[in-house]
């Protein structure tokens, strides 16, 4: 076994150990971010958008190991989320149901499981703004967030499953609006676009979590790489692949090979320019997806090599919590919301989820 494969395998096993310990310590609890290394605390979660990732990690472990016990646990934790299928107030239903009910449905083809996915996708689609042609965020009716690119595949799933052309067209329109208003010519991304509610006209770019309206918030850029690559598998439209590749090229131009990026590429050197392993993990997983989709072999190799190098970095003690006693997360040095001081230099459950997902993919390649 190569040294890299050994590191990846150990990282996967460590992540499974941490998930099991969290289940035993706090049953039926869905963590978001740590405070001083602890998942359960009194800190604000801002919105309940991340509750699918803990159960999603259980599905990844069940699939990887073939364990009936892990599968039963994954099903139990997924059922705890079922009520959210009717939530029309959230734009993050994809984050809840794609890591949980989608692998469950792919494994079983159970129509009842698919019904949950379809209902959740239709609930998300009620947020569609016809004038602006976008799915509005929870922030305000006039707000579109880059994060929603990770959630719109749930609308596509509902549309394809029910042969609903209108729903499909709305999902496509959302992606086109996002590309036009949030993805910059150089491949960077803004987090938020603001629209005129009367006319649907795009007004400006801004941010909720980035350093500034015109900065490169790295988690948002990673969402865009991953999101547009996923959408391409659903549309087969080269427009979506081109956006994902432009995002990826921009990320790699600003992030030296094997380097964990800062939480925002445009934060000035100093105490505020800290790393975000969650952005690194999402980007690595998205780059591995994109490497399988790119029609340019040279480009595909570059994306794959960059993702593997980034994962190799994350498997070392500086970033993996395996040598940090009593730490409850998997990846150290993540950032949730820098301005609100939520989960700054901590573990995040989405960082842990996408790291586990990326490691699982990498183990099939190395």
Folded structure, characterized:
The chain is 52% helix and 7% strand. With 366 residues, the protein is mainly alpha-helical. The protein has a single domain (3-363), classed as Glycosyltransferase. The strands form three sheets. The protein has a three-stranded antiparallel beta sheet with strand order 3-4-5, with no helix packed on it. β6 and β7 (342-346) form a beta hairpin. α7 (152-162) packs parallel to α9 and α9 runs parallel beside α11 (277-293). It is globular and about 55 Å long.
Order of helices and strands: HHHHHHEEEHHEEHHHHEEH
Termini separation comes to: 9 Å
Mean pLDDT across the residues is: 97
CATH topology (fold) name: Glycosyltransferase
Share of helix, binned:
40-55%
The level 1 CATH classification is Mainly Alpha
Q: CATH architecture, please?
A: Alpha/alpha barrel
Descriptive key words:
366 residues; three-stranded antiparallel beta sheet; globular; single chain; Glycosyltransferase; mainly alpha
Secondary-structure map:
Blueprint: H1 3-25, H2 52-65, H3 68-79, H4 93-97, H5 101-108, H6 111-125, E1 128-129, E2 134-135, E3 143-145, H7 152-162, H8 165-181, E4 192-195, E5 202-206, H9 218-235, H10 238-254, H11 277-293, H12 297-314, E6 334-337, E7 342-346, H13 349-363
Antiparallel strand pairs: 1-2, 3-4, 4-5, 6-7
Helix pairs in contact: 1-13, 2-3, 2-13, 5-6, 6-7, 7-8, 7-9, 9-10, 9-11, 10-11, 11-12, 11-13, 12-13
């Amino acid at each position: 076994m190569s040294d890299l494969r050994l590191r990846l395998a150990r990282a996967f096993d460590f992540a499974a150990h941490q998930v099991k310990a969290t289940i035993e310590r706090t049953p039926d609890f869905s963590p978001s971010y740590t405070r001083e290394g602890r998942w359960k605390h009194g800190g604000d979660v801002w919105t309940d958008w991340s509750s699918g990732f803990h159960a999603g990690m259980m599905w990844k472990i069940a699939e990887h190991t073939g364990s009936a016990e892990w599968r039963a646990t994954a099903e139990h934790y997924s059922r705890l989320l079922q009520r959210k299928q009717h939530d029309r107030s959230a734009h993050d239903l994809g984050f809840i149901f794609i890591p949980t009910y989608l692998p469950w449905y792919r494994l079983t083809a159970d129509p009842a499981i698919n019904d949950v996915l379809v209902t959740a996708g239709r609930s998300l689609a009620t947020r569609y703004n016809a004038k602006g042609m976008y799915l509005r965020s929870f922030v305000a009716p006039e707000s579109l967030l880059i994060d929603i690119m990770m959630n719109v595949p749930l609308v596509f799933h509902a549309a394809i499953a029910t042969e609903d052309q209108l729903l499909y067209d709305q999902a496509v329109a959302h992606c086109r609006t996002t590309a036009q208003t949030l993805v910059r010519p150089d491949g960077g991304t803004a987090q938020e676009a603001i629209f005129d509610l009367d006319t649907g006209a795009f007004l400006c770019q801004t941010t909720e979590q980035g350093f500034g309206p015109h900065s490169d918030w790295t988690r948002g850029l990673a969402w865009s790489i991953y999101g547009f690559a996923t959408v391409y598998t659903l549309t087969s439209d080269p427009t979506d692949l081109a956006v994902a590749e432009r995002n990826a090229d921009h990320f790699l131009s600003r992030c030296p090979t094997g380097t964990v990026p800062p939480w925002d590429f445009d934060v000035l050197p100093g105490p505020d320019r800290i790393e975000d392993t969650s952005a690194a993990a999402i980007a690595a997983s998205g780059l591995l997806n994109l490497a399988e989709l790119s029609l340019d072999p040279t480009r595909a190799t570059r994306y794959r090599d960059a993702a593997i190098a980034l994962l190799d970095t994350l498997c070392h003690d500086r970033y993996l919590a395996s040598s940090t006693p009593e730490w409850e997360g998997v990846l150290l040095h993540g950032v949730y919301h820098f301005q609100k001081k939520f989960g700054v230099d901590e573990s995040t459950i989405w960082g842990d989820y996408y790291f586990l997902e990326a490691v699982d993919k990498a183990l099939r390649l190395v």
